[in-house]
Design brief:
Elements lengths: L4 E2 L20 E5 L4 E4 L2 E12 L6 E10 L2 E6 L7 E3 L2 E8 L17 E7 L23 E3 L23 E4 L6 E3 L4 E6 L2 E2 L15 E4 L5 E5 L1 E4 L8 E2 L4 E5 L10 E9 L5 E3 L3 H11 L5 E3 L4 E4 L4 E3 L2 E4 L9 E3 L5 E10 L5 E11 L8 E9 L9 E11 L11 E6 L5 E6 L12 E6 L4 E10 L5 E10 L2
Parallel strand pairs: 23-28, 27-35
Antiparallel strand pairs: 1-2, 2-9, 3-4, 4-5, 5-6, 7-8, 8-9, 10-11, 11-20, 12-19, 13-14, 13-15, 13-18, 15-16, 16-20, 17-19, 20-21, 22-25, 24-26, 27-28, 29-30, 30-33, 31-32, 31-34, 34-35
């Protein structure tokens, strides 16, 4: 039997020791098919793994594991915005399966078996309450995200021609460039800052860069914060920061691909002794709900990747709360290449409304390697938007495989419908230069009345391909 159980203590060999910490609230098991372990008082066996790849790029779009838990058979979806599930006396999730290592440009998980499973006692929090703070100053799903092993796509990079798949790890949280604040999710020691690092921290997950901060928390986890527009100038290498302390403003610096987001990624040492990426989606949701309690949250993510003329079924699932009725799937078919946003909205018995948009990347059926267009839009503020106060909206179109690419700003027009009868336009550069300081188009809008507004933005490529995105904007009094 090849199985591993790892309970992480705080002391790190050959490292500066952080403050003592409790053991992990979950157990980690890297299993091959047929392995059985005892965990949280239950018998867990891995029965099978199924990975579904798309016919275009041969990327994994869905991974599932079949488990036996105290003789009860259950199938779980892995990563990709899925949360731990309660089965008998266990909560269990699957972070990643072995197939993601094939044709992947890196190996951030350091999984050497068929599947990585995590278990908690039924009813237990995923992390101790308050262990994390939500690291960005904005609403949940205020704009696009890349989370949980989905192939990267927002910058238009999910294309048929790429030789290796970049499955995203960590938590990409989109936002508004130069506006959205980034704060420390935990207390921690700054072990790397703006391209420098402390010499006694040698974990291979630390990769210094000018736009990156690494923190070490009391559990011995390293946290990467990337793509800052600007860093808090008061921070110094070797400082200890407190949870919630401002680290800087969100941006698109470094290896962002040109879209504005925080790359937030915890790392830990896994059962095989290797350092790798830790799936933190459940912890992120728990942190948000503690900071900003929200009765109903749904997810229509990850994105879909199809050809023109090919029907695609879109679904949404519940992350928190209970809708009054099941969320019905919808089927769509697109005749033009581009990127499309399809809205899901549901209510619970108390009338609370939840919305999320399914994103669909559509390639030309005849020539999937042909150009297409993607789009990212964001706004600030989102947590405390008020009637009578301006809101800044930003958008950038991403032209993939177009020749020639735009070489000057203001080449692409984004058309805005603010949901209150007002419209406007902004202009972006088509991502001609990923780190261009004015790559995003910007427009301000002021709502005269409080309410919940659906903001629609769209753009058109030179050949007629389209990109659309929807933002759910809540405006208070």
């Amino acid at each position: 039997m090849r199985a591993a159980l790892y309970l992480l203590a705080a002391t790190l060999a050959a490292q500066t020791t952080p403050t003592p910490a409790a053991r992990l609230p979950f157990e980690v098991h890297d299993l091959t098919i047929g392995d059985t372990v005892t965990t949280q008082g239950a018998q867990l066996k891995l029965l099978g793994v199924e990975e579904t790849r798309d016919p275009i790029a041969r990327a994994i779009r869905r991974a599932q594991v079949t488990l036996s838990i105290d003789s009860q058979t259950v199938t779980l979806d892995c990563g990709n915005y899925n949360l731990p599930r309660t089965v008998g006396r266990l909560q269990v999730d699957c972070s990643v399966t072995g197939g993601y290592r094939k044709n992947e440009r890196a190996d951030p998980w350091k999984l050497e078996t068929y599947a990585r499973l995590r278990t908690w006692p039924a009813g237990a929090p995923w992390l101790p309450p308050g262990a994390w703070k939500y690291p960005v100053g904005q609403r949940w799903f205020a704009t696009a995200t890349q989370i949980g092993n989905e192939p990267t796509y927002i910058d238009g990079g999910d294309v048929a021609t790429r030789k290796q798949i970049y499955y995203h790890t960590g938590l990409d949280i989109g936002g508004a460039e130069g506006f959205t604040p980034v704060v420390a999710a935990t207390d921690g020691l700054i072990v790397s800052l703006a391209g420098k690092k402390l010499p006694d921290h040698t974990a291979p997950v630390i990769s210094p860069r000018y736009d990156v901060i690494y923190l070490l928390d009391s559990r011995g986890w390293y946290y990467r914060y990337s793509h800052f527009h600007s860093l808090n100038p008061a921070l110094k290498l070797g400082d200890r920061v407190i949870q919630g302390q401002r680290l800087g403003l969100l941006g698109k610096e470094g290896g962002s691909g040109g879209w504005t987001h925080l790359h937030f990624e915890p790392h830990m040492q896994f059962p095989n002794g290797k350092w790798g990426s830790l799936d933190g989606f459940a912890f992120l949701l728990q942190a948000y709900q503690l900071d900003f309690p929200t009765p109903l949250i749904i997810a229509a993510r990850p994105h879909k990747f199809v050809k023109t003329g090919e029907p695609v079924t879109l679904t949404a699932h519940v992350l928190s709360g209970a809708p009054a009725a099941p969320i019905a799937p919808v089927t769509r078919m697109y005749t033009k290449p581009g990127t499309y946003s399809e809205l899901f909205e549901v209510r619970d018995a108390q009338g609370n409304l939840a919305r999320d948009s399914a994103i669909v990347s559509v390639l030309n059926a005849a020539t999937p390697e042909a150009p297409y267009i993607s789009l990212h839009a964001a706004y600030y503020p989102s947590l405390d938007a008020r009637a009578g106060r301006p809101i800044t909206f930003q958008a950038r179109s991403f032209l993939m495989n177009y020749r020639p690419m735009p070489t000057a700003p203001a080449q692409i027009t984004e058309r805005w419908d603010f949901g209150d009868g007002s419209t406007g336009v902004s202009h972006s550069d088509g991502n001609a230069s990923k780190l261009a300081p004015h790559g995003y188009g910007r427009i301000e809008h002021t709502y005269t009345k409080p309410g919940r507004y659906l903001v629609k933005v769209e753009s058109t490529a030179p050949d007629g391909a389209e990109a659309r995105m929807v933002l759910d904007v809540i405006v208070g009094k």
